[in-house]
Specification:
five-stranded mixed β-sheet, Znf_TTF, 31 helices, 736 residues, TTF-type domain-containing protein, alpha/beta, RNaseH-like_sf, HATC_C_dom, single chain, two-stranded antiparallel sheet
């Protein structure tokens, strides 16, 4: 039976070199441990042993104990075989020629005491092997340093021509050469001078080093997570090579009570059906030793293959684990609520169409962009001279119009801000396009846009949507925090709805004053609110007779805000979900005013695997003491959310005093809020696998992504750990 199949007691390894198993006999995962143990034990040199005589013809010879001191620590003697061995050759197997003794110093043992000069020859080769190992380590260390740099920066390794005649041999070899030119230790083992088995810079070896870095990074994540419960955040998308990829992020609470989200990897999927995605998750879990039974939350977007009630991914996982509760991504729900307003209100839809056209026309050429910057700079200088703007470091920086994103409505808010800030410059560029005449190619479109922008209707919609998107932008940014918890997220949604409701009730006067001031500044006519409204583009016979005040206050202001509030109330209504209703009782606001013991007990019952009937009874008593402690202790009075509460409980050891309450809090923190971390992974994928690197293999991309995204963890991993992992991945000619 091989040692691959049994436990190895490192303290009971045979000391006699004649009785040892070869290093290859042991499991590859413990071979380095065996080597270290033998190095700690030192060579077997029984100096006081009575060495037996061997007959060589008419002469007799025996091993001389003085040879131990003469030839050094590599020399060993086997009492069992009456033979000499080499410790260095046994541990590291350097390539030693026959003139140096071949296998006689590792397998059979050297016994020709008549020719002790063989020991001197082997000594020279042993010293040479030590130098070889040192050079190999230096080369590997330099290669890992280069790999670290490229992984952290997301840069390409290779070049189309890496021959010695090439003027650019690729980023990796060029950086390695740079390091060699500035480091004498590395320069001694450059590519041109190193033996073949020292050249650890070939493509396959680069991939192995990258894999070793990724393996150690994911291992660090798994070690940090320990036996904690976790949630999975999943999303799928296509990369630049039109391959379907699924990214997975783990969310859990670490031993410090801090919520963390870590990217664990990507899986290529043949299709985006729920069953295909579930199989990909199972493969990923199997590779990293994760169990579906530890999952306590699922976070996806609203796609039918994800949240389908009968065959969606969430349903398939819930059949396997009933406590893996599904949370629809809050950020995605907010985006859907904004899209409904933009698409279902005809005036707002037309407004955003105008905004898109303005950005496209003004930014259609570098000439127009330069003109926009020049006009804006002139306006800034003029405002500074008049005292309308304050000067200072970081203020009044050069800027341009920001384009709207297709999937992130937070970018629309930035676009509106830039248009308000650069309104005069945009008008000037549109007038320049018109003055250029037919050669501009967009004279008609520019003229229409100029007329629309210089209207009260446009300015009113511009400021109205700026205020609405400004209120929701704070919520959007907060939801995308990695450490955001679901209790605080629900509170932020409530505040956002309250802010919009307040805006509806008492924000009209401030808005109309702001719009009127803006129009006066830019010479835009302001209609009399008591006059009848004239709807351009519609027949007057079919037009409803209403005043301008009714038009802008009722049909625009109230209608848009009511539609926005209705969508937010519909999509963020925790009363529709028992889990969210119970979680709200953990809120810290107003000295735990939302605390409700019965609902928290019900929350515990939703996790039957963690809370038995006896635990529920103990929790009922523990909650009374807990809430009294929290409300009377000054240590918890300044906390903002349950994430801070969990960390403070660990700091003050309260998690040991109230273990069941702390478990309830960590389960709440584990539930996902948004899938922003997964979407960031796809953004990183676009950086790594761009148009010029679209042939990147799946494993290479996965390993590169893990290290690139989790660079903070990777920076704490020592090179020695990476080297040991690299050595254990397969048999190497070079030895550390």
């Amino acid at each position: 039976m091989r040692e691959n199949d049994v436990e190895v007691n490192l303290l009971n390894l045979p000391m006699d070199p004649g009785l040892r198993h070869p290093i290859s006999y042991y499991n590859v995962n413990i071979q380095d441990q065996v080597r270290r143990q033998y190095l700690q034990n030192g060579p077997c040199q029984p100096k006081t042993h009575n060495f037996p005589l061997r007959h060589f013809g008419k002469q007799s010879r025996r091993f001389n104990s003085a040879w131990f001191d003469k030839y050094g620590n590599w020399l060993e003697y086997s009492i069992a075989k009456d033979a000499a061995f080499c410790l260095c050759c046994y541990l590291f197997k350097p390539e030693i020629g026959e003139q140096a003794g071949g296998e006689s110093f590792t397998k059979h043992g050297f016994t020709n005491w008549k020719k002790p000069e063989r020991l001197r020859v082997h000594t020279m080769y042993s010293r040479h092997s030590n130098q070889t190992r040192s050079e190999y380590r230096a080369r590997l260390q330099a290669s890992i340093d280069c790999v670290r740099f490229f992984l952290r920066q997301g840069l390409a390794f290779r070049s189309h021509d890496e021959s010695e005649e090439s003027s650019n041999r690729g980023n990796f070899l060029e950086l390695l050469k740079f390091l060699a030119d500035h480091n004498e230790d590395i320069k001694a083992v450059t590519l041109e001078n190193a033996p073949s088995f020292l050249k650890v810079t070939c493509p396959d070896t680069q991939k192995d080093i990258v894999s070793a870095c990724a393996i150690e990074t994911t291992n660090a994540i798994i070690r940090e997570m320990g036996d904690a419960f976790f949630s999975i955040l999943v999303d799928e998308s296509r990369d630049v090579s039109i391959k379907e990829q699924m990214a997975v992020v783990l969310r859990y609470v670490n031993i410090s009570g801090q919520v963390v989200e870590h990217f664990i990897g990507i899986e290529q999927v043949g299709s985006t059906t729920a069953q295909s995605l579930k199989e990909a998750i199972d493969r990923l879990f199997s590779r990293h030793g994760l169990s579906m039974s530890r999952v306590r939350g699922q976070g996806y977007d609203g796609a039918s293959n994800m949240q389908g009630e009968f065959n969606g991914l969430k349903t398939i996982i819930l059949r396997e684990n009933e406590c893996a509760y599904y949370i629809h991504c809050f950020a995605h729900q907010l985006q859907l609520a904004l899209i409904v307003v933009a698409k279902n209100h005809i005036q707002i839809e037309s407004f955003f169409a105008i905004i898109a056209n303005v950005v496209n026309v003004v930014g259609a050429s570098s000439k127009r962009c330069d003109a926009l910057r020049e006009k804006h700079a002139e306006e800034v200088v003029k405002a500074l001279n008049l005292g309308d703007l304050s000067s200072g470091q970081g203020l009044n920086q050069e800027t341009t119009l920001k384009r709207c994103g297709d999937t992130r409505w937070g970018s629309h808010y930035n676009t509106l801000l830039s248009i308000i800030n650069m309104f005069s410059a945009v008008i000037s560029v549109l007038e320049m396009i018109i003055d250029d005449g037919p050669k501009s190619g967009q004279i008609g479109e520019a003229k229409n846009l100029l007329e629309l922008m210089l209207s009260f209707n446009f300015v009113f919609c511009l400021h109205l949507m700026r205020n609405i998107l400004g209120a929701t932008d704070e919520l959007s940014q907060a939801l995308q925090r990695k450490d955001q918890d679901i209790v605080n997220a629900m509170n932020l949604v409530r505040l956002c709805k309250l802010q919009l409701q307040t805006m509806r009730q008492s924000g009209w006067n401030s808005l109309i004053d702001e719009v009127t001031f803006f129009c006066a500044k830019h010479d835009i006519d302001v209609p009399n609110m008591d006059d009848m409204f004239v709807d351009r583009g519609r027949s007057r016979r079919k037009a409803q007779e209403i005043t301008n005040l009714h038009r802008y206050r009722v049909e625009l202001y109230y209608a848009v805000l009511d539609m926005q509030l209705q969508e937010l109330n519909s999509r963020f209504n925790e009363t529709n979900t028992e889990l969210l209703l119970c979680l709200a009782c953990l809120s810290l606001n107003d000295l735990f005013s939302a605390f409700n013991k019965q609902k928290l007990l019900r929350l515990a019952q939703l996790y039957p695997n963690e809370f038995s009937t006896i635990d529920i009874m103990a929790l009922e008593i523990q909650l009374d003491t807990y809430i009294l402690d929290m409300r009377t202790s000054g240590e918890f009075s300044e906390l903002k959310d349950i994430g801070d509460l969990a960390k403070r409980m660990v700091e003050t050891k309260r998690h040991n005093v109230y273990p069941l309450v702390y478990l309830l809090i960590t389960l709440a923190l584990t539930l996902p809020v948004a899938t922003a971390s997964v979407e960031r992974a796809f953004s990183a994928m676009n950086i790594l696998k761009n148009r010029l690197r679209n042939r990147m293999g799946e494993q290479w991309m996965n390993d590169s992504l893990v290290v690139y995204i989790e660079k903070d963890l990777f920076n704490n991993i020592d090179n020695e750990v990476v080297m040991q992992r690299y050595q254990c991945m397969k048999t190497r000619k070079g030895q550390l």
